[in-house]
Amino acid sequence: MKASHVFAFIGGAAAATLVTLLFTTEKGKEIRKEVSDKISEVSEKLTKEELDKLLDLLTKEKKKLETLEEEVKDEIKEVQKELKKL
Questions:
Q1: Alpha carbon distance 67, 65 (integer Å)
Q2: Measured between alpha carbons, how far is 53 from 47 in angstroms, rounded to an integer?
Q3: Distance of alpha carbon 36 from alpha carbon 53, whole angstroms
């Protein structure tokens, strides 16, 4: 990489920083707090959504297991009847 490219990159980064500082009306501390609050809100929503999805999945699996349990009990009864016949 040429030295001129490095200096151009550093100059561009410095110019972007300067423009940002000139046009930003809030302090960095306030911006970081707002960003942190938004992240907390989003993570709480995602967590609730994930928990709801998990609860739905577990409820469905429970119903499947209950159905399977009944089928197994019915099969056991049929096998017991067949064994008694022997």
A1: 5
A2: 10
A3: 26
58 vs 52: CA distance, rounded Å = 10
pLDDT, residue 12, reads: 80
pLDDT band at 2 (very low <50, low <70, confident <90, very high): low
Tokens of 76: 């056991």
Compute the distance between CA of residue 43 and CA of residue 50 in angstroms, rounded to an integer.
10
pLDDT in tens, 35-75: 788 777 766 666 777 778 878 888 999 999 999 999 999 99
DSSP 26: S
Taking residue 52's Cβ as centre, other Cβ atoms within 10 Å add up to 10
What's the start-to-end Cα distance of the chain, in Å? 89
